[in-house]
Write a structure and sequence with these properties.
Layout lengths: L6 H18 L6 H10 L1 H16 L4 E5 L2 E5 L3 H9 L5 E2 L3 H7 L15 H12 L9 H12 L4 E4 H17 L7 H14 L9 H16 L23 H24 L4 H9 L8 H13 L5 E6 L3 E3 L2 E3 L4 E5 H5 L40 H18 E5 L1 H6 L14 E6 L1
Parallel strand pairs: 2-8
Antiparallel strand pairs: 1-2, 3-5, 4-10, 5-8, 6-7, 9-10
Length: 429
């Protein structure tokens, strides 16, 4: 058997590493608890706890004593890569915890699908999202939508203000222009995601989900030609094409959080803005907005929007002579690896260049979009839209930041940063 933490160490690991993730809201963020998490520096505490466990028990994975569950905390970089590379067999992405949460609003998404349906659903998503192309076939339209909506900025905005704009962008890109003002579909999804934070402990809102899916079906069955959902036309019924769309909307919302934090980082680090502006003015040199995309990826490294990556073994697995039983759920806490200064010297700095000069290509896992066969199939679309947003704002606006956030982002960056209280001023140049 894998090394097993004592009852005391298991309790401390749950308190310092896993419970703060649940409290903040893994599916829909709880802003008030995000403020508490920032105040308590929960990611610092998680990293410190993992180090103590590693020193005491070795590199792991380390089994935790949780009644009725088989949970292993991943402590070593090599084990992160193995789990991600060997997905979906023997390590399934469709874990018990994930199924309990995501069944509230996307029970047939590829993320929670096991073989044999997983492969064709994954292929459907990859085809619709042009996963293997650097730029989506409707990329030009995505750029137009982002620039059009962000050209209305002027004055000081809070997160809720920006999210309303970002949600319009997302609805237009995913569902088409006629969904621009369909705030009801976003509200339905928010309600379902809030319930999903409680996984199996919250009853299902079947009426809300049916209304949400009925609204989505209208956009999918009669799609606008340049909407992402147009790529789902003629998909076999058993793949549930409509059921793939909730995750696209869900993931795009997390991308908005990354963009918002990127604006704050650029306001606090104005030296990083000129290269982004130069790039935007010379698209023939760098058509994919690499500098802006690097800033977004750095925001995601510093404060991952996916707080924990889960995998579940379908069979007993061997770990350096130790065995993890079938059904073991492995937890990879992103910030533990992204912000470890003993492993990466830029851990607590805003350094977008690491995504351009090769420093991201390291055995140490920097995984803002996960990795391996289950890497985010919409990575290219997310980077295109978010980098366009950052490039457009950096080129057309002067940025300012509320004093409290500016103080946090000066010097060594905090490991926990709640995006909700951030206020950014956009002044047209």
């Amino acid at each position: 058997m894998l090394p097993t933490a004592s009852a005391l160490d298991s309790g401390l690991a749950l308190r310092d590493v896993l419970l703060p993730i649940v409290a903040q809201g893994p599916i829909l963020r709880r802003p008030q608890l995000g403020t508490v998490a920032e105040r308590l520096r929960v990611d610092d505490r998680a990293l410190a706890r993992v180090r103590r466990l590693r020193e005491k028990y070795g590199d792991g994975p380390l089994m935790l004593r949780v009644p009725g569950r088989s949970i292993a905390l991943v402590l070593a970089a090599a084990d992160v890569h193995r789990l991600l590379d060997e997905t979906p067999e023997p390590f399934a992405a469709a874990t018990t915890e994930k199924n309990g949460a995501l069944s509230h609003f996307q029970p047939h998404a590829v993320l929670v699908t096991d073989p044999p349906l997983r492969a064709p659903r994954r292929e459907l998503n990859e085809q619709a999202l042009d996963s293997h192309q650097p730029v989506h076939r409707h990329g030009h339209r995505m750029l137009e939508v982002v620039r059009e909506e962000l050209s209305t900025l002027t004055g000081t905005y809070g997160w809720d203000d920006f999210r309303a704009i970002w949600s319009r962008i997302v609805r237009r890109i995913v569902l088409g222009d006629r969904a621009r003002d369909d705030t009801g579909i976003t509200a339905d999804l928010d309600q379902l995601r809030a319930d999903a934070n409680w996984a199996d402990f919250h009853p299902r809102r079947d009426a809300v989900r049916q209304h949400f899916l009925a609204s989505l079906t209208g956009y999918v069955t009669k799609p606008e030609p340049d909407a992402l959902v147009a790529g789902l036309q003629d998909a076999p019924h058993e793949l549930d094409p409509v059921g793939q769309v909730p995750h696209w909307l869900f993931a795009f919302d997390a991308a908005g959080i990354a963009v918002w934090r990127t604006f704050a980082l650029l306001a606090a680090h104005p030296d990083e803005i000129p290269p982004i502006v130069t790039e935007a003015r010379h698209p023939d040199v760098s058509p994919l907005l690499a500098r802006a995309g690097a800033a977004v990826q750095e925001s995601l490294r510093l404060w991952p929007t996916t707080l924990v990556i889960l995998r579940e073994s379908r069979i007993p697995t061997d770990w350096n002579g130790h065995t993890a039983p079938a059904g073991t759920e492995f937890a990879i806490v992103s910030s533990v690896f992204h912000r470890d200064p003993e492993a990466i010297d830029f851990a607590n700095r805003f350094e977008p260049a690491v995504w351009l000069d090769g420093r991201d290509d390291t055995p140490w896992p920097l995984i803002p979009f996960s990795d391996g066969p289950a890497i985010c199939p919409g990575r290219n679309v997310v980077l295109l839209t978010t980098s366009t947003a950052v490039s457009h704002v950096a080129t057309n606006y002067d940025l300012d930041l509320d004093p409290a956030t500016r103080a946090k982002l000066t010097g060594e960056l905090p490991t926990t940063l709640n995006h909700a209280p951030i206020r950014v001023a956009f002044w047209p140049k």
